[in-house]
């Protein structure tokens, strides 16, 4: 008993020391292997966090293609299937060193909004087959550029990476607030009941995360989401009719809608891939920060390659291009879970959900305000991780300008995206995202502003 007491005292002392130093102990490190039950619960928590982003793009694409209910449901199932497959590849890392695909850190993958703009033009010209073929061909650019990541990374010193991580969390806040209000297009957008549920879920997650201890703290988001979901049922905010209408089982099909390989369809998507490369580099650096893992240049390159490979797998099964999701990085510092096994388990859960549409629909009808409560905390954690990273940077006049410029432009574009909508060609694509716009500004300033040498003048 005395031995156990001594161990507990040492553990508590270690945690207090880490908190005093601005560090947080991970309950599960990258290499840790929680039990099957814990991995499944934590994995499902990741799926809930990413679900809205995963299904949003196929719903939009289905509308562009004029699909009915059955084909729309297939695109959603295909998106879940591909997200599961590529999340496993990205989290595990496969292949020999020179050609490795996957960063090897806990990562959730999904379809990206960067491809929505060019998709509208391509689908109107060549149909859904042109969209699939165009994204596959254009992904060759991303695959090729993954082998040039190493020389590019010298332009990403701590002041740039810290700015990008901070910006990533801050730009996601608008997404969380949209969820809190009820979701875009909601008839009750901004209603007090929505904001009340968001605040309720927010407090539950914060309290569980802080007070529940090692056993339940990692489950804070899931516990908050379940309680919020249950509370919303008697309030009439959950439509179970959609679950009744969904089919029980559905198998994936190869090339269901065909694929049209023409370079004219690929060109509009090149900008989208440049944006996702920039964002993926930022996400991977964020993952390194929150998982307390040293991320090497070859790891980042392997992560970018996973995006490209996923963008080939997706269209074959009826989904769009794959990209590394940033929102799930917020779960890691909040739940203190960085286990690779959990992310891989989440991948298998998404694969199973794609085969059973009723289950996927049950998750998809979760009220947006519930996700809003979770999103505010998760994305805030990403921003806090970036601020923690910047705290280690010496704030010279040069570094202050880099941080200020990056945040100003990145947040400005996020708040007013219409300002950059008229920029010509590739510029419009690169500055359509707050994350990519802020990253570009940080990179340009880092190159343009040289460090001043401090010259001490002696007084004669």
TrEMBL record:
Membrane topology annotation: Multi-pass membrane protein
Key words of the record: Cell membrane, Membrane, Transmembrane, Transmembrane helix, Transport
UniProt cross-references to Pfam families, sorted A to Z: Xan_ur_permease
GO CC list: plasma membrane
Major subcellular location class: membrane
Top-level taxon of origin: Bacteria
Cell location: Cell membrane
GO molecular function, one term: xanthine transmembrane transporter activity
PROSITE patterns named in the record: XANTH_URACIL_PERMASE
Cross-referenced InterPro entries: NCS2 (IPR006043), UacT-like (IPR017588), Xan_ur_permease (IPR006042)
Membrane-spanning residues: 36-61, 73-93, 155-177, 189-209, 216-238, 265-287, 342-360, 366-387, 399-415, 427-449
NCBIfam families per record: ncs2, NCS2_1, pbuX
Family: Belongs to the nucleobase:cation symporter-2 (NCS2) (TC 2.A.40) family.
UniProt name for this protein: Uric acid transporter UacT
